[in-house]
Amino acid sequence: MGLALNDILGRACSYNKDFSREDISITWINYKCENKSVFKGFGTGINNKKMGYPASIVKLVYGLAVFSWIKKGSLLLSDEINDAVRKMLSFSSNNATSFLIDLLTGTTSGPCIEGELWENWKYQRSIINDWIHDLNWEELVGINCCQKTWDDGPFGREKEFYGHDNKNRNAMNSDSVARVLEEIMIHIDYQENDLNLRSFLKRNLNKFVLKNDSLNQIDGFLGAGLPESINLWSKAGLMSEVRHDSAWWVNSQSLQTLLVVFCNGEVYSKDTSFLPSIAKEVYEFNKTYIIDD
Asked: Architecture of 2-290 per CATH?
């Protein structure tokens, strides 16, 4: 897999002189199903521990945090919370994300504040990072997930909270995203009345459906490189400086794949072919060399 990924990335970067493997981070894990509920993962990566701005992929963390808050009784699941998480993950709604971060941390956006009020606000907003630290997952060490996501950018106390030169900006790597997505996909035993994060990530690859949904998180992303018949769950991130995607798909009855790709730079943000080409080659490799073993 390591040799294959190196070749796949090399070919993908060769199509554009401005593409550089130093701007790309990838985590690729295949999961063999040993029985109905146990998966054994094996994989590889390139620059997979390199931190970068996750854009809307951070919403996976916030979704898992809401699930955890509800399980421990810090939040009471309601139709409104369920709808907000659905819109955050399915449609990448920044308004829903803002609402949920306020609920998780007991903070609100607004004008700048000072003194004890400001110190308390910053302490409260860091609660999600404290929870991440307490999970004690090796892949999540050093990540920062405390900022809201924006259409136009932060203002007031939110902008000040970003710090000088945006040093407090959200930061993740492809390994940390993979660990969170893995948790959502195979480690949670969802019950009937649970907040079903996995269901909110399910994507429809039907071309007619995609044509009528301009925010489908498939066109220009990993899902566009996969067959239409594939069962796919994913969460993308896109802004002027990055184009990322995290995806989980079913290859066969016994093999499933997790693929996270971070693309850092304006050239990737504007490109709609790079991510699909990576997914297509990973799928073809699995079909040829793994599934038939």
From this structure: 3-Layer(aba) Sandwich (3.40)
Q: How far apart are CA 232 and CA 241, in angstroms?
A: 26
DSSP state of 22: G
pLDDT digits (tens, 9 = 90+) for 83-123: 999 999 999 999 999 999 999 999 999 999 999 999 999 99
CB environment 78-96: b (16+ within 10 A), e (fewer): eeebbebbbbbbbebbbeb
Least confident of 53-57, 150-154, 244-248, 277-281: 150-154
First to last CA, the chain: 14
Prediction pTM value: 0.96
Domain ranges in the chain are: 2-290
Residue 74 and residue 68: Cα distance in Å, rounded? 9
Assess whether pLDDT exceeds 60 at residue 275: yes
Q: CA 203, 282, 225 angle in degrees (round to 5)?
A: 45
Asked if residue 16 lies in contact with residue 267, where contact means CB atoms within 8 angstroms, the answer is yes
Hey, is 86 helix, strand or coil?
Answer: helix
Q: Which two tokens stand for residue 89?
A: 């993950």
At 72 the three-state DSSP class reads: coil
Confidence grade of residue 292 (pLDDT, cut at 50, 70, 90): very low
Would you tell me how many other CB atoms lie within 10 Å of the CB of residue 280?
17
* DSSP per residue, 206-258: -HHHHHT-TT-S-TTSGGGGS-TT--EEEEEEEETTEEEEEEEEE-SSSEEEE
- Transcribe 105-158 into DSSP letters: HT----S---HHHHHHHHHHHTHHHHHHHHHT-GGGTT-B------SS---HHH
